[in-house]
Write a structure and sequence with these properties.
The structure holds 2 protein chains of 2 kinds. Chain A is an all-alpha fold. Helix content of chain A is 81%, strand content 0%. Chain A has helices at 8-12, 14-48, 51-66, 69-84, 90-115, 119-127, 132-162, 174-185, 188-219. The longest helix of chain A is centred in the N-terminal third of the chain and has 35 residues, at 14-48. Chain B has a single domain, classed as P-loop containing nucleotide triphosphate hydrolases (Rossmann fold, 3-Layer(aba) Sandwich). In chain B, strand 9 (168-172), helix 6 and strand 10 form a beta-alpha-beta unit. The chains are: A mainly alpha, B alpha/beta. Chain A: Belongs to the binding-protein-dependent transport system permease family. HisMQ subfamily.
């Protein structure tokens, strides 16, 4: 064997990798920023909309969940300019794709969380004269969101890893940068080892932060009765 | 006496099943009315129709002399806003407490005044503290429901309903989910309310409580009021066989009175 590891070239290009990481975080962050509220909206429409709304919303959610994200990405990036004449750069296509794609998953997380809340909570809120929006906003969602945190984190991690697909439309994310450094330096193993480590560190840090948050929220515990 | 609640010809069906078959009932201000009956007799459904947790199939409900809903083409239509507004004037206490687990005791009690009545912060706080004190749990203001006993949770649920300063309070088997040793504290709280002149409509299986506290007892059987009167009339000298059987089942085993010599 006797492979000679040489990380020096990787560190010489560390600014490129860091730029890639920033770009990855930008796409992931924006996809979360748009995807979570959109997911909530889709979940509420699917749960409480009238039939004319529920059906199409359900279809959109299932469509986004069942088609490969890379197909969606190509569709927005390549098909939009041809079909409706809108030029879209790789960054915007990426944010658009992953916002929509993750909103479908978040919609299902929200739906599950909302439906997991005991119907007695709805009744109690109704009995003191709260309307549906007040009940959702003050009673149901605060409890549901707490229960959804692990599923949210899972989706967010999955999202960050899935955004590596944006390198296929030449958006300079971490994986794209790693690939180009590898091609110019021939140090593929080292470059991808460092890139993987960067994903690992960021995701682990997020996991730990969320775990801390969970523990803090758990202190205002839930009733054992009910 | 001023009439707070009047129910006329109330029917309620769930699909094919007719649960209430024409109930007429009037509750005066300050009166405590207890509903008794076997399970399935419709007493909980009757209670839940009063604050429109269930929408009556037919019949009319009047609160403070005003009919709820508007008649249209021979049917009564209920607006969602009207019902929400009505529910803020009718307090309800549930078998399973249903406190909001993410809020402290005080926040639970303040929630109605804050969100529904839109009281300012100091008024919310005043009401929250006042009604927590009323149920004897001012010292638990900052506790979360999970940290409280079942009896304490139920008393906070009572305070939460009282904080809306309702015209009538409904109790739906408020002590049925409690361990036996915790039943007393909740009944005590309810008795105090009755003595202070709160108008109350109570579904319960606690016959001793009904005997002591009720002004009027109603016995429901198969969706109709079979018998009604003072506690002594219904509980001590029932006329109907169904009432007698029901009471016999409840009084089969009793502790002997202590011997005094």
């Amino acid at each position: 064997m006797g492979y000679e590891w040489d990380f020096a070239v990787v560190f010489r290009n560390s600014d490129l990798l860091l730029l890639g990481l920033v770009n990855t975080l930008k796409v992931t962050g924006l996809a979360l920023l748009f995807g979570v509220p959109l997911g909530l909206l889709l979940a509420l429409l699917r749960l409480y909309g009238n039939r004319a709304v529920r059906l199409p919303v359900g279809f959109v959610i299932e469509f986004l969940r069942t088609t490969p994200p890379i197909a969606q990405l190509f569709w927005f990036f390549f098909a939009m300019p041809i079909l409706i004449g809108v030029e879209i750069d790789p960054f915007r296509a990426s944010v658009l794709t992953f916002s929509l794609q993750s909103s479908a998953f978040f919609a299902e997380v929200f739906r599950g969380g909302i439906q997991s809340i005991d119907s007695g909570q709805w009744e109690a809120a109704k009995a003191i004269g709260m309307n549906r929006n007040q009940t959702l906003g003050r009673i149901i969602l605060p409890q549901a969101v707490k229960r959804m945190i692990p599923a949210f984190l899972e989706r967010a991690i999955e999202l960050m890893k899935t955004t590596t697909l944006v390198s296929t439309i030449s958006y300079a994310d971490l994986l794209y940068q790693a690939n180009s450094i590898a091609q110019s330096t021939y140090r593929t193993i080292e470059v991808f080892t460092v890139a993987a480590a960067m994903y690992f560190v960021v995701i682990l840090a997020c996991s730990i932060a969320v775990r801390r948050l969970e523990i803090r929220l758990a202190r205002s515990g839930e009733t054992i009765v009910n | 006496m001023k009439e707070v609640l009047r129910i006329e010809g109330l029917h309620k069906s769930f699909a094919e099943l007719e649960v209430l078959k024409g109930i007429d009932l009037s509750v005066d201000k300050g009166e405590t009315v207890v509903l008794l009956g076997a399970s399935g007799s419709g007493k909980s459904t009757l209670l839940r129709c009063v604050n429109f947790m269930e929408i009556p199939t037919s019949g009319r409900i009047h609160l403070e002399g005003k009919a709820i809903g508007s008649a249209r083409n021979g049917r009564i239509a209920y607006g969602e806003r009207e019902l929400t507004q009505l529910r803020s004037r009718v307090g309800m206490v549930f078998q399973h407490f249903n406190l909001f687990p993410h809020m402290t005791a005080l926040e639970n009690v303040m929630e109605g005044p804050r969100t529904v009545l839109k009281c300012d912060a100091s008024e919310c706080r005043r009401r929250g503290e006042k009604y927590l004190d009323k149920v004897g749990l001012g010292w638990k203001a900052d506790a979360y429901p999970a940290q409280l006993s079942g009896g304490q949770q139920q008393r906070i649920a009572i305070a939460r309903a009282l904080a809306m300063e309702p015209e009538i309070m409904l109790f739906d088997e408020a002590t049925s989910a409690l361990d036996p040793e915790l039943v007393g504290e909740v009944l005590e709280t309810m008795k105090e309310l009755a003595e202070e002149g709160m108008t109350m409509l109570i579904v319960t299986h606690e016959l001793g409580f009904a005997y002591t506290v009720a002004d009027k007892v109603l016995f429901l059987s198969e969706g109709s009021i079979l018998e009604q009167g003072t506690p002594a009339e219904v509980l001590t000298y029932p006329r109907q066989d169904a009432t007698k059987n029901f009471l016999r089942g409840h009084n089969m085993f009793r502790l002997p009175e202590p011997q005094i010599d």
